[in-house]
Amino acid sequence: MNSIVLNNGVRIPELGLGLFRAEEEKETINAIRYAYEAGYRLFDTASFYGNEEQAGKGLKELDAPREDYFVTTKIWMDDMESGDIRGAFERSLKKLQLDYIDLYLIHWPIRDFYEETWRVMEKLCAEGQVRAIGVCNCPIRSLENLCRNFEIKPVLNQIECHPQYFEKEVIEYCKKEEIALEAFCPLGRGKYLNDPILQKIAEKYGKKESQIMLRWNLQQGIIPLPKSVKRERIISNADLFDFSLTEEEMREISSLNIGKRAIDMDPETIRL
Ligand SMILES: NC(=O)c1ccc[n+]([C@@H]2O[C@H](COP(=O)([O-])OP(=O)(O)OC[C@H]3O[C@@H](n4cnc5c(N)ncnc54)[C@H](OP(=O)(O)O)[C@@H]3O)[C@@H](O)[C@H]2O)c1
Which of the listed residues 160, 162, 184 should we mutate to test ligand 1's pocket, taking the one with most ligand atoms within 8 A of CB? Predict the structure, then answer.
């Protein structure tokens, strides 16, 4: 698995396994095993997913050297509001049975609480408890504030990004500021797999529509985090490295943006 160098020098794999809605313990443990065997080295969880403990077991069962895989988890809004940032981090670390987290993210940077949260995350980074800190769902104005007025600039912004929904301005801003990007819902939660343009391109390369969606992110340097607990799909979602899309195909796929999120969280209601 190739990697991308973050703006603090830490390397992150260019593809990861998403773990949202991996709910059964056995399922999560197996998914991590299947993914590891298929070459994934990045695992994306969050305290909100309620499966950090399961993920911790799955990682332990790999019996692999710790530096061989990269773990991301995230702080949820309730913990930011209560101000118990360090407590939330320690609970995640314990559930994951790890000594450190590779990447710790703010799940939703609610405007009244993200600055204080970030200051504690900076301390965790300085103490070596996390190797890198970043954000998810972060609008440009908050990114700008973090970049200009804090000690540590976010290494990465994890955003919803698939052909049917992407925010061009946020992507361009992050690229300009050397903030890496991760794509959540890179498969649009499976809602768009029968799109005729994706079907046509998939046929040309003898690939699946899902692989075309993932390759589209990968080819822009955006790290896709497809979620699956099924072995075949986990393998297929990583089988992206034996073809490449032409510039024209990239443009054609980008034209599918309908500006509608696959998730039902509204940034306005969340007070970003
Ligand atoms: N930061 C945030 O706010 C945020 C928000 C959402 C998600 N995320 C992260 O991003 C990850 C991915 O997003 P997501 O899980 O919401 O959506 P997704 O990866 O776009 O789609 C996952 C869905 O597609 C199915 N699937 C997987 N591979 C498939 C394939 N090859 N063909 C057909 N269906 C397939 C999965 O089912 P099976 O498991 O049954 O295969 C699951 O129902 C999450 O798991 C999480 O780690 C972050």
Answer: 184
Phi, psi of 227 (to 5 degrees): -105, 130
Ligand 1 atom at minimal distance to the Cα of residue 211: 31
Span 255-264, average pLDDT: 95
In whole angstroms, what is the distance from residue 106 CA to residue 196 CA? 36
CB 134 within 8 A of CB 102: no
pLDDT of residue 266: 82
Ligand 1: which residues within 6 Å by Cβ?
18-20, 44, 107, 136-137, 158, 184-190, 193, 210, 225-230, 233, 236-237, 263
CA nearest 219: which of 261, 251, 256? 251
Q: Rounded distance, CA 20 to CA 17, Å?
A: 10
Model confidence pTM above 0.85: yes
Q: How is the chain split into domains, by residue range?
A: 3-254
49 is catalytic: yes
Q: Is there a contact between 163 and 198 (Cβ–Cβ < 8 Å)?
A: yes
- CATH of segment(s) 3-254: 3.20.20.100
CA of 21 to the centre of ligand 1 (A): 8
Question: Mean of the pLDDT values across residues 88-116?
Answer: 98
Q: pLDDT tens digits, residue range 40-59?
A: 999 999 999 999 999 999 99
* Residues 224 and 218 sit within 8 Å (Cβ to Cβ): yes
